[in-house]
């Protein structure tokens, strides 16, 4: 046990975590030259295309330092704020963390929030200055920032480069010297913490765990404490580049178990595995429950595929524990699910994965956050979907979630960023200079305002330099109204949204104009209206496609033409009463990108 080191790599987006992990794998000869490729641990097509890490990846490396062979269990984590739950789970399975800071960009918001996650779990932090080979590197300034942040000694910071491989031996040495070995009792009953799981269509569900106490052998009868279900451990082993079977996985190790579980609902991340023969009575305190920030409806395009979508969602939840969903139905879209995501990027990735991995084409409704509604009778309830909001006559007040946002940016961009936040109903709480040209701004603002396009606009205004991180601080009263969209007087519930009264008119006008461009013209006139309650605040009209019915009359009396036109007019009127309007998926998505 004293030769095991469990550690993860944490950093802001694009500071070179995956590249550094590649160098570590090459240096310890865990992978051969033939297997080597850039971002080796990012094994999803989506991750490679976008160049981001979406899933944490665990891998074991064996390396001799002196005469002693060490087992290094490395977990490479995502950097994006939407995947912070992945990071928190990885941290729970480790004793140390490599904190990577880009030498050319310095400390950014996500660096700080991931660092706090690691400090809450009492991890040993090893600061690493990455990208030292870049011409724009500022090692001395960034070292000062790191010392201010974590209060370490200057010589503790390891200069490195994921590209050239500089500093890798020092990092390995630091992991051996500074990261504590896992603490656990090999003689105690088995306790293993599940931190991830994947679905394999041949072998069922594979759970990844860290053994905290005891050991798990092939052929043991095991029990999952939370669900109370019992299984036979068909195969146990450790995670190399592929899974490598072992007869026993001992205390402190990170491994996998295949036990022929078919039902996705039976494996929960954060559950504890124990043996039936010598059960442990108490579960390990795993992770806090995930709190979704953004809610949207996901519906199958073809209503018959509802059950297949349910299966796909369960399988996806295995691999991404931060998604929550429950069934709901909509008048416009049929049966589907109300899903909670950690942010807009998370929502986009889930939609992509459903299409790629499960061949499901889905429609996503306008995302929103959850509100608390108070009725005049004194009841209060949570509103996840704008159509659940009670009638205005019965509504006393609505509370919306607020967040505290930390934005770190260069001093040149403070003005535009402040005006963006104030435009989004934010209030500035604090402004402090970290160095002469780096400013940290702290705002309190409504969660709903950052759901749509806040992050994109922040990046645009700051030329990509600003970094952003947030956490919830509770609910506050707001003057919110429900904006409904009507097509030919029929409300489209999938497009309704809760919005602040001051923004309602502009938003309604923009949505109507946008829909007028996107909805295909029909044989009849379509009126598009935005309304608050019974009051219409914006309207656009999509004119009808007209067939030239008088083409066959050349010459002749005007009354013949009039007769044909009157007949057409009647037909149009009847059509408008029975015709229904199909809304294309692009219209649902375009509403999100109104600016």
Automatic annotation (TrEMBL):
Membrane association type: Peripheral membrane protein
UniProt keywords, alphabetically: Cell membrane, Elongation factor, GTP-binding, Hydrolase, Membrane, Nucleotide-binding, Protein biosynthesis
A GO-annotated cellular component: plasma membrane
Gene3D superfamilies: 3.30.70.240, Elongation factor 4, C-terminal domain, Elongation Factor G (Translational Gtpase), domain 3, P-loop containing nucleotide triphosphate hydrolases, Translation factors
GO molecular function: GTP binding; GTPase activity; ribosome binding; translation elongation factor activity
Subcellular location: Cell membrane
Binding site for GTP: 14-19, 130-133
Single GO BP term: positive regulation of translation
Domain Tr-type G span(s) in chain numbering: 2-183
CDD domains from the UniProt entry: EF4_II (cd03699), EF4_III (cd16260), LepA (cd01890), lepA_C (cd03709)
Class in the EC hierarchy, top level: hydrolase
Protein name, UniProt field: Elongation factor 4
Species whose genome carries this gene: Pedobacter ginsenosidimutans
UniProt lineage: Bacteria, Pseudomonadati, Bacteroidota, Sphingobacteriia, Sphingobacteriales
Gene name for this UniProt entry: lepA
